[in-house]
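Hey team,

Sharing the DUF4190 domain-containing protein run so nobody has to redo it. Sequence (100 residues) first:
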Amino acid sequence: MSYQPSYRAGSGTSPLAVVSLVFGILAWCVLPFLGAIVAIVCGHLARSEIRRSPVESRVEGDGMALAGLVLGYAQLVLCVLGAFVLVAMMVFGFTLWGWH
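Structure output:
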């Protein structure tokens, strides 16, 4: 009686989850606004792909997609806050220093 180890070949990691994580990291290093948008879109697509995959061949990478989403949303919030601060400094700063 020979013992054959049974294993199932997994589907692997979702490529969209990897893209989300990579662009989430790039959003903090190289591409502040664009990288955040790509990380958010790919992160949501990856999580929906992972949830829709059948149980027998489960696609992995939910943690990477979630990390890409967190990095992307954090960078996007900082970009929007930075834009508001820049506009406020231009509007209120010029009037405070007498520039019209």
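The mean pLDDT is 87.

Ping me if you want the raw files.
A.
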